[in-house]
Design goal:
The complex is a heterodimer of chains A (242) and B (229).
Chain A lengths: L1 E10 L2 E11 L4 E5 L6 H8 L7 E6 L2 E2 L7 H6 L1 E4 L11 H11 L5 H14 L15 H13 L5 E5 L7 H16 L4 E4 L3 H7 L2 E6 L2 E7 H6 L4 H11 L2
Chain B lengths: L7 H39 L3 H15 L3 H20 L8 H26 L3 H9 L4 H31 L11 H12 L2 H33 L3
Classes of the chains: A alpha/beta (242), B mainly alpha (229).
The complex binds adenosine-5'-triphosphate (ATP) and magnesium ion.
The site of magnesium ion (MG) has 3 residues of chain A, from helix 1.
Chain lengths: 242, 229
């Protein structure tokens, strides 16, 4: 579904990504982790072309992201993305947040879009909040709406960039529960997260990054059982003591 | 000691009212045009295409570095001559007024574009990323996500600029347009009561602008109280 091959990216002389390669097959859940500044966000943003990259190739469902001929907007409309800071549109009601792209990008009718949006809102347990504005919801609720908004586009895969790291601890689980359910239903997911409980439960593989490189790309059990690199070991030790 | 004589004002009120209507019309047109053209300039300045950015920046810096009264005179005296030459207009077509008004609007747009640019930049980058991630084109992201938020943040500044612009309209008297200030001047000149008429006109400008800025301040307070979400 997602294939990343020898991707490198630099800002001026600063190398953010160095020769990154990995694969996400249909129905797989890949967790990407690593220290701050290691390039996780940059890598995941390259997948839907939010960040350009200078060399290597990324294909999503057979479409090359880096190819100048690719219609990036169209590709992005088929790839869901969830951000650390939710990024709901604050000037629109929750319903409008859920429907705007369905109507303007996919060309669905207002009724069809509302129907779909409210169904998904119900699924993330927030049906009662349809008429509210994002500012009236808690962080956890906003992130669940953001997931519903992405799902409303019927994505072929989902990208998550630290979806729980801006949340108060008591709200993390309500978001993770939605993500676990999604994973169990067979959604293809690439998740940047440090929630190792989530990773243990649903991930197929763990990608560990450090200084712009993919240092480990292991099956879940291998990674948690016995990571090969010293850096991954240190990282795990640090994260598990928190 | 100068003897004030206000007696010529009551009779002149209908003319002054006509003049005020002209001033308000010019203000409304220039505000609308200034915001529309200013928005395009602001977007050009923030665009990724370098030549576009330079052109817009050049335009804004040029107009902000020239006194308004000069722009008005150029557009009143010189541009019509050029237009006449280029379009072969007959000598009876008077484009001087229209030209002065266009100059006025072009000038104000430079100021509006700076306000709007700041407004656009006040919208977090993540909003554009989220819009793009949903498949919106750059134009859709701007129109549906960025500009509505930018304008909501900018309303007080845009209104304040409109008040300044209303005062600036008094300068169009150099183009012989019968705006409020122009009428007051003419009446005062005619009756030999220039001091009274100019004091009166000043008081009217003060009252309108002061009341309007109080209203803007009030609105801004309300916005700040609500805006924390
Ligand atoms: N626009 C930019 N210009 C220059 N450097 C940048 C830019 N964006 C990111 N970087 C740098 O690239 C590196 C990788 O950033 P990235 O956001 O991908 O890291 P991350 O792994 O997601 O970190 P975090 O866990 O803090 O989110 C960082 O060192 C960052 O400072
Ligand atoms: Mg990051």
């Amino acid at each position: 579904m997602i294939s990343i091959q020898n991707v490198s990216k630099h800002y001026g002389t600063f190398q953010v990504l160095t020769d990154c390669s990995t694969e996400v097959n249909k129905g797989e859940v890949i967790v990407v982790c690593g220290p701050s500044g290691s390039g996780k966000s940059t890598l995941i943003k390259c997948v839907n072309g939010l960040e350009p990259f200078q060399s290597g190739t990324i294909t999503v469902d057979g479409v090359s992201v880096g190819d100048p001929k690719t219609n990036l907007s169209k590709l992005r409309s088929r790839v869901g993305m969830v951000f650390q800071h939710f990024e709901l549109f604050p000037h629109m009601s929750i319903t409008d947040n859920l429907t705007i792209a369905q109507v303007k990008v996919l060309g669905r009718s207002k009724d069809e879009a509302t129907d779909k949006g409210l169904k998904l809102l119900d699924r993330v347990g927030l049906k009662a909040h349809a008429a509210k504005f994002p500012g009236q919801l808690s962080g956890g609720q906003q992130q669940r709406v953001a997931i519903a908004r992405a799902l409303a586009m019927d994505p072929i895969c989902m990208l998550f960039d630290e979806p729980t790291s801006a949340l108060d601890p008591e709200m993390i689980n309500e978001v993770l529960d939605v993500m676990v359910e999604l994973a169990q239903e067979g959604m293809t997911m690439m998740c940047v997260t440090h929630e190792m409980g989530f990773a243990r439960k649903v991930a197929n593989r763990i990608v560990f990054m450090d200084q712009g490189q993919i240092v480990e790309d292991d099956a879940k059990d291998a990674f948690f059982g016995n990571p090969r690199s010293e850096r991954a070991r240190q990282f795990l030790a640090k994260i598990l003591t928190h | 000691m100068y003897e004030f004589d206000w007696s010529s004002i009551p009779g002149a009120l209908p003319f002054l009212w006509e003049g005020m209507k002209v001033s308000l019309e010019i203000t409304a047109c220039a505000v609308l045009f200034g915001i529309a053209w200013g928005t395009l300039l602001a977007m050009a300045r923030l665009a990724a295409i370098k030549p576009l950015t330079w052109l817009a920046a050049g335009y804004v810096n040029l107009f902000r570095a020239i006194p308004l009264v000069m722009v008005l005179l150029w557009f009143f005296l010189i541009v019509p001559q050029v237009l006449r030459g280029v379009f072969n207009l007959s000598a009876t077509t008077d484009v001087r007024l229209a030209s002065a008004l266009v100059g006025f609007a072009l000038f104000e747009a430079a100021y509006y574009s700076e306000i709007i640019r700041a407004g656009i930049q006040s919208v977090p980058k993540g909003q554009v990323a989220a819009a793009a991630a949903l498949g919106m084109t750059y134009a859709q992201a701007m129109r549906l996500v960025v500009l509505p938020q930018a304008f909501r943040n900018m309303v007080p500044l845009l209104l304040t600029q409109a008040i300044v612009l209303f005062q600036d309209t008094s300068l169009v008297y150099v183009s012989a347009l019968a705006d409020f200030f122009g009428v007051a001047y003419k009446v005062g000149d005619r009756d030999g009561r220039l001091v009274e008429l100019l004091l009166f006109a000043g008081a009217v400008y003060f009252l309108i602008c002061f009341a309007a800025s109080q209203a803007v301040r009030h609105y801004q307070k309300k916005l700040n109280a609500h805006g924390a979400h």
